[in-house]
Write a structure and sequence with these properties.
Elements lengths: L4 H4 L14 E5 L25 H13 L4 E5 L9 H10 L3 E6 L12 H8 L2 E5 L5 H8 L3 H14 L11 E5 L10 H16 L5 E4 L6 H9 L3 H10 L14 E4 L5 E2 L2 H5 L30 H4 L18
Length: 322
């Protein structure tokens, strides 16, 4: 796989500083039951990296020590970690909001048939990837049969109350463009998703989050091999909106990799751009990163281009084209 970091390191992106830390985003490992073209983690079924159990046990301690409001679990497929359910229960026992970044097909994997019920019982907020409401587009990006399994998963979640008014069970979907383009307006796309999924399948959900593809890992390598990398990076830079800087996710979030190392965001994690202090999950027990300058590179324009893009969707408003 082609490495994009050397092409991103030298940048004039304006580095922001950290605000108060509210969210711990933990990558439990790179193993996944899917292998998606746009994946910036390069996750897949053959990856073996997994957070050690003793380090997983440290996470609730950090949540308590830093008085954090949110635990954001990602991967790979975070649900494949053997201690995933223990960690969810431990965080929820502290009153911490737990987000599970779910690919939907995990709900029908062998041994995971009771996963949806567990998530609902714990009140876990779901952010589920569905890159389009059209079957051909989803299967082209994520693999044959993924759309049908995703729709089945969404129906199962709806039956449990997810996405239903007043249930308190939040179900948000995620859209990524199929190639080197920025997402369309999030509000307009959300309306289209809600209409199409309701009319085609009777499915409801809360919000749609539109995320720009980052020119790193698998997606970045694909851009390089097709001769599209520099044009895409130029597009991101040309569409930079300074107003989005105050809302970028890295100001209030720290990313933790499967080895317990700290990063300003999940994208920096995939580029190996570690923090110098605090450096590890254990360091957070006594160290507060507020006020520190955030490490930046060329990919950061992906978070501020156009309407902006973060783990929570568009920043300045709100974007599946066929």
């Amino acid at each position: 796989m082609l490495d994009t970091r050397p092409l991103l390191e030298y940048t004039d992106f304006p580095a922001p500083r950290r605000a108060r830390l509210t969210t711990l985003q933990v990558n439990l490992g790179y193993r996944c039951n899917q292998r998606c073209l746009h994946c910036h983690v390069n996750a897949g079924p053959t990856r073996t990296e997994m957070m050690a159990d003793d380090r997983v046990a440290r996470i609730p301690e950090v949540l308590k020590a830093r008085r954090l409001a949110t635990l954001d679990l990602t991967g790979g497929a975070p649900e494949l970690h053997p201690r995933f359910r223990w960690l969810v229960e431990a965080a929820r026992a502290q009153g911490v909001r737990v987000i599970d970044r779910c690919n939907l097909t995990i709900l029908s994997e062998p041994g995971q048939q009771d996963l949806a019920g567990f998530l609902a019982g714990q009140g876990v907020e779901l952010i589920a990837s569905l890159p389009c409401y059209l079957e051909a587009n989803v299967d082209a990006q994520r693999g044959e049969g993924v759309y049908a399994r995703s729709i089945a998963g969404l129906k199962q979640l709806n039956t449990l109350g997810y996405g239903q008014a007043s249930s308190g069970l939040i179900l948000n979907l995620v859209y990524n463009p199929g190639g080197p383009q920025l997402p369309p307006a999030q509000a307009d796309l959300e309306a289209a998703y809600k209409r199409e999924l309701r009319d085609r399948h009777g499915i409801v959900f809360n919000r749609l989050l539109s995320l720009a593809n980052m020119p790193i890992q698998r997606f970045g390598s694909t851009l390089l091999s097709k001769g599209q990398f520099h044009d895409y990076l130029a597009l991101l830079k040309a569409r930079h909106n300074p107003a989005n800087l105050d809302a970028v996710m890295c100001r209030e979030l720290i990313s933790v990799d499967w080895q317990g190392r700290l990063y300003d965001c999940d994208f920096n994690q995939m580029l190996g751009m570690t923090l110098s202090a605090p450096a590890t999950l254990e360091d957070l027990l006594a160290s507060d990163p507020e006020g520190a300058e955030i490490r930046v590179a060329g990919h950061c324009y992906g978070c501020t281009a156009g309407q902006g893009s973060s783990c929570g969707g568009a920043l300045d408003g709100a974007g599946c084209p066929a």
